[in-house]
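Re-run requested by the PI after the first attempt was lost when the workstation crashed. Everything re-entered from the original request form. Ligand of interest: heme C.
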Amino acid sequence: MKVRTVLGSLALLGLVASGAAASEGDAAAKALFETKCSACHPASRALSKNKDRAGWEGTVKRMQGKRADHLSDAEVEVIVNYLNEIRGM
Ligand code: HEC
């Protein structure tokens, strides 16, 4: 009985923690997108489109190649996930 209660609390804590992490992640991803993707054109250039994940991956990697060293691979990943979430198809 006691073990189940502890496990239940842990599961609940896990849910709360992952929920908080996800929304923080989104805010950070949004900020990264707005900073990195407004250097050459308004960031809204991307927001007028819907693409599937592979489509966004292709676009963001293409943008990464337009200027040396402005986007790390990890940042590409974060922005692809973000765009796929808000403008996926
Ligand atoms: C170094 C300059 C530069 C940066 C930084 C940049 N772009 Fe672009 N982007 C361009 C240029 C130039 C074009 C138009 C020519 C083309 O499509 O290749 C373009 C076009 C686009 C298009 C329209 C074409 C398509 O494939 O749908 C989208 C969407 C886009 N950019 C998204 C982004 C995103 C998302 C980011 C941030 C990861 C970003 N851009 C960062 C230069 C840049």
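Saved to the shared folder this time. The CA atoms of residues 8 and 14 lie 10 Å apart.
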